[in-house]
UniProtKB/TrEMBL annotation:
Region (Disordered): 66-99
Top-level taxon in the UniProt lineage: Bacteria
Biased composition (Low complexity): 66-97
Protein name: Uncharacterized protein
Taxonomic source organism: Cellulomonas gilvus (strain ATCC 13127 / NRRL B-14078)
Length: 359
């Protein structure tokens, strides 16, 4: 009989990020760029960006080449894909949770700047789970042999991108941190498709090629499995590597990879600042209005920004020549000019990032 308290504690531990809770500390330090991409026929809304995002719209996907949708060999032969019963993930997703930075299990195999730590013949034990990558950058979980597995998984797979020297240069990373529970039984031919959106994350100093070998993988928490006696644990399940066309991601980058000083057209502090619930983009006026809060004697100011086709990121911080600040808290609204040559077809969303959060 299951101990309810034990299950609750295990669930809490899992919600702390055993399966998919964002990039680990060692990877975050090396992350340089984060690029969003449109996914055909479907919009995927993001959660807050790690660096205090005010708002963002993320779109997942791209095109893939050289794909094989066969499930890779697990400890025993995988179930036959003939006429499988496909079970979608549970509709009740675990909400995203803010977690302390730490090394994720998957970084053991796919760490920024390091060679991939597995081969197609030496995959890590995955508690009976196997993975296949689909044509649209979704992935499908199945089980090997006659196993039955209950696991908590992210809503999308991750793709580790490998450069010409064999080292990881970036990732196609899930837009959302949500988790779902799935039950897979080989006897019923069960599979689970994870088709959430993904975005490009580049390792620091790395150039993302137009085409790259990618390793699809999912970090999951196995809650129960008949494949072995090890019990509940985090596992990394990897599919066969494939070649991905990354041109759509690069084409959507615009100037998003280049930070540039901002031009402040107007600054209103205090009662005259008004109230802005969200940043306001005026394409006709070629301006962006955003509101920040801080000391009236030294309010935070926009310092630099980068403009992508569907997102504008603005870094704010204190002026360098200011001393101590008063303890009062006042709103300041800034109106920023869009750079020459920036001409999005639709109003982009705006992220406000505090400089102490990105170093």
């Amino acid at each position: 009989m299951n101990d309810p308290l034990q299950d609750q504690l295990a669930d809490l531990a899992h919600a702390a990020g055993a399966a998919s809770d964002g990039l680990g500390e060692s990877t975050v330090r090396r992350v340089a760029t984060r690029v969003r991409r449109r996914r055909a026929a479907r919009q995927v809304g993001t959660g807050a960006v790690a660096a205090c995002a005010v708002g963002a719209v993320a779109w997942g996907a791209g095109q893939v080449q050289g794909a094989s949708s066969r499930l890779p060999a697990g400890p025993t032969a995988p179930v036959s894909p003939a006429a499988p019963v496909t079970r979608p993930p549970s509709a009740s997703a675990t909400p995203s949770v803010e977690h302390p930075p730490r090394m994720m299990l998957w970084e053991k195999y796919f760490e920024c700047g390091e060679p991939v730590g597995i081969t197609i013949h030496s995959r890590p034990d995955a508690g009976g789970l196997v993975l296949a990558a689909d044509e649209d950058l979704s992935v499908t979980l199945g089980v090997a042999g006659d196993a039955s597995v209950t696991a908590t998984v992210p809503t999308a797979g991750t793709f580790a991108l490998v450069g010409d020297d064999g080292a990881v240069v970036g990732y196609l990373y899930p837009d959302e941190d949500d988790l779902v529970e799935t039950d897979l039984r080989a006897a019923q031919g069960d599979t689970t498709r994870l088709d959430g959106g993904v975005h490009l994350v580049a390792c620091e100093g790395a150039d993302i090629p137009a085409e790259a070998v990618a390793w699809p993988f999912v970090q999951a928490t196995v809650r129960s499995t008949t494949a072995d006696d090890e019990g509940r644990r985090a596992v990394v399940v990897a599919a066969d590597p494939r070649t991905l066309d990354l041109t759509p991601f690069a084409a959507d980058r615009g100037t998003a990879g280049l930070w540039a000083p901002v031009t402040i057209l107007e600054a209103r502090t205090g009662a005259s600042a008004g109230v802005l619930e969200h940043p306001v983009v005026e394409l006709d006026a070629r301006t962006v209005a955003l509101q920040v809060a801080g000391s009236s004697s030294c309010p935070p100011i926009p310092k630099r920004a980068r403009f992508g086709s569907d997102v504008i990121q603005v870094v704010v911080g204190r002026a360098d020549d200011l001393g101590s600040c008063t303890d009062d808290l006042m709103p300041t609204t800034y109106v920023l000019a869009m750079p020459q040559g920036f001409a999005p077809t639709d109003a982009p969303t705006v992220e406000v990032i505090h400089e102490e959060q990105i170093g």
